[in-house]
Amino acid sequence: MGNVFGGGEKSLYLSNGGTEVFIDVLMLAVSDLADDVWDYRFAALLTLQDQNVMGRGAVGFALQDIAWGTTPRGRARSKDFVLRATTLALSRHRWSELGYDPPFARDHLYQFTAMVETFVPADDAHLVGEFPAPDERALASCSQHRILSALPHWEGCFLCNKPRQS
């Protein structure tokens, strides 16, 4: 069982563990770069990929279901944000906070980057997808970990929601 992240004709299939790592490292970068309403909406989409809350094998998204923007400039800005976040994650940004070494995360991030780079976002005026609306954006930040989260809906960020190792 795993999860699929699609982008046009490309897709990234990840095991449940691979998905967790991919979202973890991307969320660390997104949390530090977000500064626009769209960025926080994208962060909210990432919080919905937390399998400890949503269920294992029950997450994933397609790039074509994301509301990238209604103008060419807006779509380019949104795409640039995702690429900047992925580049920051590739630099191992804050990975020391994970408590584990993510050995395959770089490969997954490179594959996702290639998907995003080749993806051409369409006008989303007609889009009816699962991309969080502006009023559903992730504005709360976990005070302990400084990571955007779905607070107050969930009790903490993805690090707070991790099952404790015994």
Task: Describe the protein's architecture and organization.
By secondary structure, this protein is mainly alpha-helical. The chain has one domain (2-161). The protein is 42% helix and 10% strand. It contains six helices and four strands. The protein has helices spanning 16-33, 37-47, 51-54, 72-90, 105-118, 158-161; strands spanning 2-7, 10-15, 140-141, 148-149. The strands form two sheets. It has a two-stranded antiparallel ribbon with strand order 1-2. The protein has a two-stranded antiparallel sheet with strand order 3-4. Helix 1 packs antiparallel against helix 2 and helix 4 packs antiparallel against helix 5 (105-118). The two termini are 25 Å apart.
Which features characterize this protein?
166 residues, mainly alpha, two-stranded antiparallel sheet, 6 helices, globular
- Overall SS class: mainly alpha
Number of helices: 6
Report mean pLDDT, rounded to a whole number: 82
Q: Could you give the order of the helices and strands?
A: EEHHHHHEEH
Specify the overall morphology.
globular
Question: In the residues, how many domains can be counted?
Answer: 1
Please give the radius of gyration in angstroms. Answer: 15 Å
* Gap between N and C termini: 25 Å
Q: How do the strands of the widest beta sheet line up side by side? A: 1-2
pLDDT below 50 for ≥5 consecutive residues: which ranges? none
Taking the sheet with the most strands, its summary is:
2 strands, antiparallel
Share of helical residues: 40-55%
Strand content: 5-15%
Number of strands: 4
